[in-house]
Amino acid sequence: MFTAVLDLLFPSDCTGCGRPGRPLCASCAALLARPREHRPQPCPPGLPPIAVAASYDGPVRAALLAYKESGRRDVTAPLGAALASAVCRLVPRTPQRAPPELTLVPIPSRRAAARARGGDHVLRLARSCLPALGAVGLRARVVPGLRVRAAVRDSAGLSATARAANLAGAFEALPRRTPLVGADRSMLIVVDDLVTTGATTAEACRALRTAGRRVDGVAAIAGTARRPRSLLI
After folding, report:
1. Strand, coil or helix: what is 202?
2. From residue 11, how far is each of 5, 75, 88 by CA, in Å?
3. Tens digits of per-residue pLDDT, 216-233?
4. Domain boundaries in the chain?
């Protein structure tokens, strides 16, 4: 009721298409409810299975940018639900057997980026996806088990090779913060908002494995679609 009153008094535009009414309209929300397997091309070595909720284009791209760069916190919950759907895609379901317990490790932001965005935006998304996971019977916890170790420049516009070089050694696992995962009924899943070349996720997985953690998968809200190379005629 309170939310409905606020919507009447302070109507917001859809972060995806700009339609007035809600932070994410039904049409745009539907685009974020199509979890699927994803693989960057070319794929960096060492990447575990990846699942995303949507392709990074159109309203999905607009909604993520509004959340990250324009302070639209009101879209956190639907984006968190989308992230939860990607996590669910990675979880094996076996009849007559309890589902695994999940540890979600968000990829951390650089300090400057976190300050500019009013906090770590991926950590916030990871926490916001817990209710949706609980609603489908999955026990999960969020563990901020990584930190940025080395200064990296903005990767926007860099090639896949340049991104990998830029991110080499960028992360390290925090001691005693991320539990060792190895039991049959547990999974460690790295979570992020976006997978582009896979360089960031590959570096995060490397840091966790170096510290003795087993990484079972990567989940993200969106993944960039593979662009076919143009043919010279």
Report:
1. helix
2. 10, 13, 32
3. 999 999 999 765 444 333
4. 18-92+99-223
What does the alpha-carbon distance between residue 188 and residue 212 come to, in Å, rounded to a whole number? 12
Helix or strand (DSSP H, E) at 5: helix 2-9
Q: How far is CA 27 from CA 18, 33, 36, 58, 80, in A?
A: 12, 10, 19, 12, 17
Contact 146, 208 (CB under 8 A): yes
d(CA 33, CA 81): 9
Q: Is 21 helix (H, G, I), strand (E, B) or coil?
A: coil
Q: CA–CA distance from 186 to each of 103, 144, 213, 219 (Å)?
A: 8, 17, 12, 16
Residue 218's alpha-carbon distances to 47, 88, 91, in angstroms, are: 8, 11, 11
Cα–Cα separations (whole angstroms), residue 6 to 3, 9, 27, 53: 5, 5, 22, 29
Residue 169, both tokens:
């050694």
Return left, alpha or beta for 21; rule: phi > 0 is left, psi -120 to 50 is alpha, else beta.
left
- Report d(CA 191, CA 50) in Å as an integer: 10
Integer angstrom CA distances of residue 192 from 5, 16, 68 = 33, 19, 12
Report residue 57: phi and psi, to 5°.
-160, 170
Q: Is residue 117 very low, low, confident or very high in pLDDT (cuts 50, 70, 90)?
A: confident
